[in-house]
Design brief:
mainly beta, about 200 residues, about 65% strand, single chain, Porin
Length: about 200
């Protein structure tokens, strides 16, 4: 009986300690990443349109509703891209895009690291569009965002983060006011950075 009581007491102490550690971490997690944007560039205009790949800065803020469920807002600054045409022989203009995403995540319980998956929505706003006369694009895009990643503890409340997202971004292309097709950018974003839990 004493052994059983001792085992129960130890178990209670361990679980209460784990719960306290979880609470001590706090519900907020902020990450800063360097992200490689690799565009799919699926074009239905017949012009072979594409935007260039590049490395961009990214910041996200996550709030944990439970130890396993979190919401993440992914942010960056407007990114300038060259728009090129394989048919017309190269660069035909430039544009900027601002692509915030909001995702709901599930964080798995694992020893030594914290993997997660997420899904949500992306809104992209195109601006500073400079294209040949008569050519224009739709300024707004809504699409799905999918995510898989892992937080690896480095020290108290500090994590190394590796994150991969697939974001669905597209815009209709117009010539003299008539739609001629759609450019699907649909990038894969691979990021590495640091996270702080508080």
């Amino acid at each position: 009986m004493k052994k059983n009581l001792l085992a129960v007491a130890v178990l209670c102490a361990l679980t209460s300690g784990a719960a306290f550690a979880q609470q001590a971490e706090g519900p907020w997690l902020v990450r800063a990443r360097a992200v490689n944007l690799d565009s799919a560039n699926k074009d239905s205009t017949g012009l072979g349109l594409s935007v260039n790949d590049k490395v961009i800065p990214e910041v996200d803020v996550s709030y944990f509703f439970t130890p396993n469920i979190a919401a993440e807002l992914v942010l960056t600054v407007p990114q300038k891209h060259d728009l090129s045409s394989s048919v017309l022989g190269g660069k035909i203009g430039t544009l900027k895009h601002l692509p915030p995403s909001l995702l709901v995540q599930y964080h798995f319980n694992a020893a030594g690291f914290k993997p997660y998956v997420g899904a949500g929505i992306n809104y992209t706003r195109f601006s500073s569009v400079k294209l040949p006369a008569g050519v224009d694009i739709d300024r707004n895009s809504f699409g799905a965002a999918l995510q898989v990643g892992v937080d690896i503890p480095l020290q108290k409340n500090l994590y190394l983060n590796v994150d991969v997202k697939k974001v669905y971004i597209k815009t209709d292309v117009f010539s003299s006011g008539t739609k001629v097709g759609t450019l699907k950018v649909d990038p894969v974003l691979v990021g590495v950075g640091l996270g702080w839990r508080f």
